[in-house]
Design brief:
The chain is mainly beta. Helix content is 4%, strand content 48%.
């Protein structure tokens, strides 16, 4: 049944804070994630939300360049002949004259690698398809569209870029596995890049890669790749700055959007000033991923007003290579996870600070904020630092988790991108909805955990905390997963400086707080309502 948006009696308009409007949220959840059904009933995810005022890079003034038609250069677009040389000839002819907008009318243009030149716009009209030939010898670079050291390039229109000479019948496998493509579009060491209004279909590799790019705008894009094919990422932003991703619709087996800092000629430029908004992502891996390559810093990132649906993982931050990950803001998001890979655990949010190997420096993760997030999952939210490098200044606020039973028994509980070095034994297996380990000077405000009406299939903590120094909990509303279960709603292990305020033990709570190996002096309680709990606080050795 297609649900209508909630009426005013079932919405809550949050107040304006600074430059940001909070989303108008569907308060009442029933069955499995009603709010996501509401989201799907809207034409675009942004219709669910108020506007988030984010400083995005302004589009540059369009240069007054001539318009030309690719067919004037002998290109036919009949889908039969491979026309690489003719299309490249048209691009090069435009470049000699200082650039142009090169129009592709409706048709099928089979080609090998094409090279961008300065001030070139490729405009694919609706019905125009730029297709890979599928022959390895046609690719002289690891991409279908390649630009290096260029400025002022664009890919626009309502057309398609398609991997393979014809659509493949099997949508769950990698297409053209013999191809040497690393990405359908690869732009390196470039400035002023625009990609707007294009459909990308069936990439056998990454789809759009920006590597050491400054000032890029990706807007109103559709990417559909094979649903179970690994390494078919949607957008990879590698050591790039001032990048805006808006209105991306991604479906595929790889990560949806990746931010990373790889080594480039022995150095690692930062990835900074990135905004992601009004997008819908469905991933067989992690919908939005930061890392794992973190050789350089990743900072000043805003992700807002978007929907993650039916994904194995929602948001993942993986610091592995010594860089600092800081000043990341995630707000106004709907996250639904699903066991895309049967038997594998679901991970709506993971923040994981570890070293890749013995030779790697320990990195830093700090000043990361998640606010106004609605989550439907059978899995776990995990925030895990290191013994001598805790995650600092982590802020969770307005987190609503609706827990659902897994559809099949778990055979794989390991977190995504797990690093064997510095890992804490038992974290992945701990039965909890939210786990915080090796965290410092952080806070959780207005956390609510809802369990299935019939009770969880197994007992779980709502919150499990270990090895934390300095944690403020305010407005926590949660009990243990199983009515009459033996696990506490909130379990604290080997932690200190814990403050719990204005929180509630719901009806059918057993033990509300259990402190293991922690003295009473490490806790401060104020303004809590624990009348419904069988026992409010228990201290054990």
């Amino acid at each position: 049944m297609r649900l209508q948006p909630p009426d005013s009696a079932r919405t809550a308009s949050a107040t304006l804070v600074g430059t940001m409007f909070a989303l108008t949220i569907y308060r009442d959840l029933s069955a499995r994630c009603v709010f996501l059904k509401v989201a799907r009933s809207c034409a675009r995810p942004g219709m669910l939300f108020c506007v988030l005022a984010v400083l995005q890079p302004a589009l540059p003034a369009a240069p007054q360049l001539p318009s030309r038609n690719v067919t004037d250069y002998g290109v036919r677009g009949d889908g039969e002949a491979t026309e690489t040389a003719l299309i490249q000839g048209a691009i090069d002819a435009c470049a000699v004259d200082g650039g142009c907008t090169l129009h592709f009318p409706a048709g099928r243009y089979v080609t090998g690698t094409l090279y961008f030149r300065d001030n070139i716009t490729l405009n694919l009209a609706p019905g125009a398809v730029l297709a890979t030939s599928g022959r390895v010898e046609d690719y002289t670079a690891p991409a279908l569209l390649y630009g290096k050291g260029v400025n002022g390039i664009a890919l626009t229109g309502g057309g398609e870029i398609q991997a393979g000479p014809v659509p493949a019948p099997d949508e769950t496998t990698v297409h053209n596995p013999g191809s040497k493509l690393l990405s359908l579009v690869l732009i390196e060491n470039a400035t002023n890049v625009q990609i707007r209004g294009i459909r990308f279909l069936r990439s056998p590799a990454w789809t759009i890669t920006l590597r050491v790019v400054d000032a890029a705008w990706l807007d109103n894009l559709l990417i559909e790749n094979a649903t179970l094919a690994p390494n078919t990422n949607g957008v990879v932003i590698d050591s790039s700055t001032h990048v805006s991703v808006h209105a991306l619709n991604f479906r595929g087996g790889g990560d949806g959007i990746t931010l990373q800092t790889s080594l480039v000629d022995g150095i690692a430029p930062p990835c900074a000033g990135v905004t992601i908004s009004d997008s819908t992502l469905r991933s067989g891996s992690v919908a939005i991923k930061v890392g794992t390559p973190t050789n350089g810093d990743i900072r000043n990132v805003v992700v807002s007003n978007s929907v993650i649906e039916a994904s194995q993982g929602g948001i993942g931050i993986f610091a592995r290579d010594g860089g600092t990950v800081e000043s990341l803001l995630f707000s106004n998001l709907l996250i639904e996870t699903a066991a895309v890979h049967e038997g594998s655990a679901e991970w709506p949010i993971v923040v994981d600070l570890k070293r890749r190997d013995e030779n790697a420096r320990a990195g830093h993760v700090q000043s990361v904020s998640f606010s106004n997030i609605r989550i439907c999952t059978a899995g776990k939210l995990l925030f895990s630092g290191m013994t001598s490098h805790p995650i600092r200044d982590l802020r969770l606020a307005g987190i609503f988790v609706s827990v659902v039973p897994p559809k099949s028994p778990l055979t794989q509980t390991q977190r995504p991108r797990k690093a064997l070095l510095d890992s804490v034994a038992g974290e992945d297996e701990t039965a909890a909805v939210l786990l915080l380990g090796y965290i410092a000077d952080s806070s959780v405000k207005d956390l609510r955990v809802n369990w299935p009406a019939e009770g969880a299939l197994e007992d779980r903590h709502a919150l499990f905390v270990h090895s934390v120094d300095g944690l403020s909990l305010d407005g926590i509303h949660a009990r243990q997963g199983k009515v009459g279960g033996q696990l506490a709603a909130m379990h604290f292990l080997s932690s200190r400086n814990i403050e719990i305020r204005n929180s509630t033990a719901p009806s059918q709570t057993g033990v509300w707080v259990e402190a293991q190996g922690i003295g009473k002096k490490e806790f401060f309680f104020s303004g809590n309502n624990t009348a419904a709990a069988y026992r409010d606080v228990v201290y054990v050795k």
